[in-house]
Amino acid sequence: MKYFYVTEIYHRTAIVIIMMIRGHIPIHPNAGDELALLWNYADVLNILWEFNSTVLAYIAGHSHEGAYFYDEKKIHHLTLQAIVECELDTNAFATIHVYKEYLIIQGIGRINTYRFDLLK
């Protein structure tokens, strides 16, 4: 599996300057409930850290309360709050607005709003 991640990131690095990765399960211990972490999260983190100049953020779900952490390699780890925890009359979604120097994840309802600078 590591080969797939590395090959895909190398391929994307040749095409784009900055990328975000989306996965269902958090990969950093400070970005969600420890019980909700990917079992081999350390392996995946090490791969992303190899490409920290290209990887801007890892966005996950799974840990229903949500969390945010900016790690020592300057990668944002965002775990979005779960819609299944909403009251019946509440929403939980977000829109990403990309600008030249930053992006905004504009949360609606249960989801918080975040700003990520694109320049590391």
UniProtKB/TrEMBL annotation:
<dbReference type="GO" id="GO:0047631">
    <property type="term" value="F:ADP-ribose diphosphatase activity"/>
</dbReference>
<dbReference type="GO" id="GO:0047734">
    <property type="term" value="F:CDP-glycerol diphosphatase activity"/>
</dbReference>
<protein>
    <recommendedName>
        <fullName>Calcineurin-like phosphoesterase domain-containing protein</fullName>
    </recommendedName>
</protein>
<dbReference type="GO" id="GO:0008663">
    <property type="term" value="F:2',3'-cyclic-nucleotide 2'-phosphodiesterase activity"/>
</dbReference>
<dbReference type="InterPro" id="IPR029052">
    <property type="entry name" value="Metallo-depent_PP-like"/>
</dbReference>
<dbReference type="GO" id="GO:0030145">
    <property type="term" value="F:manganese ion binding"/>
</dbReference>
